[in-house]
């Protein structure tokens, strides 16, 4: 990583650590959600941006992760932090398994299959045969985690909102670092090769099928972990929170943020968390219409996303 | 047996609506290689427009005709104003534009007309009922759908403008070389798709009642139908639409129950796609390495 | 003595993005003549034709029958009577042969004239009549080339631009095609600008020729003159 980028990143992390102490609890909660979405978007980006496989159903993996966390906490009494690796593992396997048959489908057909998955999820979650696990239409309420005693005991002003924020921040940094490492090396190049020239990639010995399924799995894992974190932050899961609209929102997030871009996940997360709030303030009657107008504005001005626009600007500044 | 037959017939009626919407999707796909996700919301908005006209006192068929006409023009305007700026943008960016359109239309409809469901009249008189097998509206809906489909077929196959639109969709560069204004052909395609969508919406509304979210589920089925039939085949879209309609109804009533019928129907469709990834009538494109 | 040239270009510059391909090309095509544009791969021949049709951004003056057409859109230039047979033929593969032909006459009015021209085209290329209901994509390379030329003829053009018509065709087929092109010129008076890598055959057909190298005209003259030119013979005719 270049010196300038490392410096920017360090500054960002410092700012991120200071924020919860200077803004309200509600704002901190919103920022936590931004981090959650960022992880989810990173997951989707691995699949769609880097591997070129469109998913219109990633909300399903988010829901899967969320419900894993909720069920493990509510029914098995697991502590919140232990649910993350388990939710991740479940989604990794689920994603990989879904990715296997999905390999046969290209472009639009894959989009439909994933769309079907995303649309079917709420119905599946409401299914009365598994109600005793999922809580049916009402869903599951979970307890808000408190900051660990040894930290509060040491005098740090960490209420539960702030603690949750830092916990999420830690997980996010870890997962971003992991992705960055993965994507800038051989794996990233292999995925790009498969996305852009699949035949040539095969000819060079890259096992397209394996990479694509693995990408599905990893992508689902990221989104699942995000879902788990989201459930913990919101303290509640219910089928109607995870409609196909969530999947669509995630897609909008990565496009506005910037495809095949790691910082793009963060920009996109900021967009999908805060712009609806802004839209709500502009018009109580038709907030989604305003949101839609914002979407149009962003895309017209920056068709390659915020990350893409930044790339263009910095390139222009460097070359006279 | 009787109940089964009725479900099949009802399935054909809703299937006709899916077929119309699927055809609209295929028309735009044909010209742009993109699926217009806002097609359902456009149809819904058109239906609300018709409702307003009827509510203001206009008789059904004039309102129907006027709505179709306005929708046609609106489709052209949307293509020229909303879609044109991103015609060279990456594919997913255009998809987001479609999504934005979807969201805006849905939200504005909810704002203007509220979310309380409204009944929508059916123009087909009670005498048309086919005994206990089909209600007059179901029969009428199938009839209207078939009429629209035949009209479109004749238009594309036998008129110079239809030929020009097909040419522009297949090979825009060559089309320009024979003097076809490709941009306007695209806009025309959108106009036609919007008009077809309006008809579909007005046929569907009496069955599912008018509400801003009425089309989202239907769009999914139409999308599935278009792909099942082969995304580049208009005939496939039509057959696919009817098939999906019947499948949904029969499964829903006899096998699964409405709770999971959407999921199961979709799983079946995806299953079919795994066996025939290009759909039933689609061309299996063989790419030469 | 022929009057105003049917096509005239002055200081034509064109390129793709940041790559400049034509660096100031001048030429004049006489009415009723067949002119060949020769040169190696990448010299700028196709770009020249594209510039005339506004398929590529160009600067400089282009005049059709005395009137300036640079800056106008492709669709308008077509309506002024310029028919372009593009590289790769540009066939509408999923449409039938006859549909392809009728599209050639898209901008014309007058059903009777169009029907007459359709018959005339079938007279030049009987094989197309046999295959009129067939999907154009199933035609052989030679037949698709005939179809492309015929489609251009259906415009009743003043000027035909042909981009590498011999590409991928057996020499016998090319000879047949070129003979028909000469016949078309003789009977209909259509002017032609022919871009060809196959210099030998092009010079047999053409009246005049221009040689383009790296975006500039380096030689011009009658076909006979170029055929006997030493440099041309060595580099482009192979002897």
Q: What distance lies between the first and last C-alpha atoms of chain A, to the nearest angstrom?
A: 24 Å
Beta-strand share of residues of chain A: under 5%
pLDDT averaged over residues of chain B: 85
What value does the Rg of chain B take, in angstroms?
19 Å
How far is the first residue's CA from the last residue's CA of chain B? Answer: 53 Å
Quaternary status of these chains?
A: heterotrimer
Percent of residues in beta strands of chain B: under 5%
What is the number of strand segments of chain B? 0
What ranges of chain A have pLDDT less than 50 throughout 5 or more consecutive residues?
Answer: none
Low-confidence stretches of chain B: none
Mass-distribution shape of chain A: globular
**From N to C, what is the helix and strand string of chain A?**
HHHHHHEHHHHHEHHHH
Class from helix and strand fractions of chain B: mainly alpha
Order of helices and strands of chain B: HHHHHHHHHHH
The largest sheet of chain A is: 2 strands, antiparallel
Radius of gyration of chain A: 20 Å
For the sheet with most strands of chain B, the description reads: none
Largest interface: A-B, 43 and 42 residues
Helical run tally of chain A: 15
Keywords:
B: 289 residues, mainly alpha, C: 239 residues, alpha/beta, 10 helices, 10 strands
Report on this structure.
The complex is a heterotrimer of chains A (320), B (289) and C (239). Chain A is built from 15 helices and two strands. Chain A has 320 residues and is mainly α. Chain A has a domain of 216 residues. Chain B has a domain of 194 residues. Chain B has eleven helices and no strands. Chain B is globular, with a radius of gyration of 19 Å. Chain C has 239 residues and is an alpha/beta fold. In chain C, strand 9 and strand 10 form a beta hairpin. Classes of the chains: A mainly alpha (320), B mainly alpha (289), C alpha/beta (239). Chains in contact: A-B, B-C. At the A-B interface, helix 5, helix 12 and helix 14 of A face helix 4, helix 9 and helix 11 of B.
């Amino acid at each position: 990583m270049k010196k300038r980028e490392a410096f920017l990143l360090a500054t960002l992390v410092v700012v991120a650590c200071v924020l919860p102490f200077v803004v309200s609890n509600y704002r901190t909660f919103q920022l936590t959600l931004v981090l959650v979405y960022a992880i989810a978007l990173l997951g989707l980006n691995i699949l769609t941006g880097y591997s070129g496989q469109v998913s219109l159903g990633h909300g399903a993996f988010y829901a899967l992760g969320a419900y894993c966390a909720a069920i493990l906490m509510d029914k098995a009494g697991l502590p919140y932090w232990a649910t993350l690796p388990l939710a991740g593992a479940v989604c990794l396997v689920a994603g990989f398994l879904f990715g296997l048959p999905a390999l046969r489908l290209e472009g639009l057909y894959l989009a439909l299959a994933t769309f079907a998955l995303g649309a079917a999820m709420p119905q599946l979650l409401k299914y009365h045969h598994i109600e005793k696990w999922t809580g049916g239409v009402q869903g599951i309420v979970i307890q808000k985690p408190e900051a660990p005693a040894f930290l509060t005991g040491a005098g740090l002003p960490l209420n539960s909102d702030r603690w949750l924020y830092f916990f999420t921040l830690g997980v996010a940094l870890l997962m971003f670092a992991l992705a960055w490492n993965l994507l800038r090396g051989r794996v990233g190049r292999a995925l790009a090769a498969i996305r852009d020239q699949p035949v040539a990639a095969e000819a060079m010995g890259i096992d397209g099928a394996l990479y694509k399924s693995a990408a599905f799995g990893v992508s689902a894992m990221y989104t699942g972990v995000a879902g788990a974190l989201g459930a913990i932050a919101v303290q509640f899961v219910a089928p109607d929170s995870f409609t196909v609209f969530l999947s669509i929102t995630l897609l909008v997030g990565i496009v506005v943020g910037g495809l095949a871009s790691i910082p793009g996940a963060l920009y996109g997360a900021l967009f999908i968390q805060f712009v609806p709030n802004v839209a709500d303030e502009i018009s109580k009657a038709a907030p989604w219409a305003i949101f839609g107008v914002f979407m149009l504005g962003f895309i017209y001005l920056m068709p390659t996303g915020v990350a893409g626009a930044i790339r263009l600007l910095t390139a222009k500044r460097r070359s006279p | 047996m009787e109940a089964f037959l009725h479900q099949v017939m009802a399935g054909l009626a809703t299937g006709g609506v899916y077929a119309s919407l699927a055809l609209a999707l295929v028309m735009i796909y044909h010209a742009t290689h993109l699926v217009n996700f806002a097609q359902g919301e456009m149809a819904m908005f058109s239906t609300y427009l018709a409702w307003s006209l009827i509510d203001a006192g206009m008789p059904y068929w004039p309102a129907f005709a006027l709505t179709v006409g306005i929708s046609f023009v609106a489709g052209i305007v949307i293509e020229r104003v909303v879609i044109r700026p991103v015609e060279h943008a990456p594919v997913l960016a255009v998809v987001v534009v479609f999504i934005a359109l979807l969201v805006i239309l849905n939200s504005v409809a909810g704002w203007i007309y509220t979310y309380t469901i409204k009944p929508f009249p059916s123009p087909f008189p009670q005498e048309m009922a086919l005994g206990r097998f089909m209600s007059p509206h179901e029969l009428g809906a199938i009839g209207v759908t078939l009429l629209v489909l035949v009209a479109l077929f004749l238009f594309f196959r036998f008129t110079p403008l239809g030929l020009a639109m097909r040419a522009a969709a297949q090979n825009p560069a060559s089309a320009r070389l024979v003097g076809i204004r490709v941009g306007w052909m695209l806009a025309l395609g959108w106009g036609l798709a919007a008009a077809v969508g309006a008809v579909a919406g007005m046929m569907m509304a009496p069955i599912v009642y008018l509400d801003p979210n009425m089309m989202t589920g239907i769009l999914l089925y139409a999308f599935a139908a278009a792909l099942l039939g082969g995304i580049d085949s208009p005939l496939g879209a039509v057959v696919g639409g009817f098939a999906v309609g019947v499948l949904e109804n029969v499964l829903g009533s006899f096998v699964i129950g409405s709770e999971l019928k959407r999921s199961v129907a979709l799983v079946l469709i995806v299953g079919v796609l795994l066996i025939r990834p290009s759909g039933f009538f689609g061309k299996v494109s063989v790419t030469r390495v | 003595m022929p009057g105003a040239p049917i096509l005239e270009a002055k200081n034509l510059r064109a390129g793709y993005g940041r790559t400049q391909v034509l660096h100031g090309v001048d030429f004049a095509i006489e009415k009723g003549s067949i002119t060949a544009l020769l040169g190696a791969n990448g010299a700028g021949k196709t770009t020249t034709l594209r510039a005339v049709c506004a398929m590529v951004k160009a600067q400089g003056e282009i005049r059709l029958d005395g009137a300036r057409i640079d800056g106008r859109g492709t669709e308008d230039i077509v309506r002024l009577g310029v028919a372009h047979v593009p590289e790769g033929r540009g066939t509408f593969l999923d449409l039938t042969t006859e549909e392809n032909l009728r599209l050639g006459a898209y901008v014309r009015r007058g059903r009777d004239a169009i029907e007459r021209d359709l018959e005339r085209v079938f007279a030049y290329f009987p094989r197309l009549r046999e295959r009129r209901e067939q999907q154009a994509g199933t035609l052989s390379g030679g037949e698709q080339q005939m179809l492309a030329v015929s489609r251009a003829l259906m415009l009743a053009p003043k000027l035909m631009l042909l981009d590498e018509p011999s590409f991928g065709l057996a020499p016998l087929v090319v000879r047949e095609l070129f003979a028909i092109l000469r016949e078309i010129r003789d009977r209909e008076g259509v002017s032609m600008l022919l871009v060809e890598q196959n210099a030998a055959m092009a010079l047999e057909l053409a009246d005049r020729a221009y040689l383009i190298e790296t975006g500039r005209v380096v030689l011009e003259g009658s076909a006979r003159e170029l055929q006997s030119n030493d440099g041309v013979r060595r580099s482009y005719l192979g002897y």
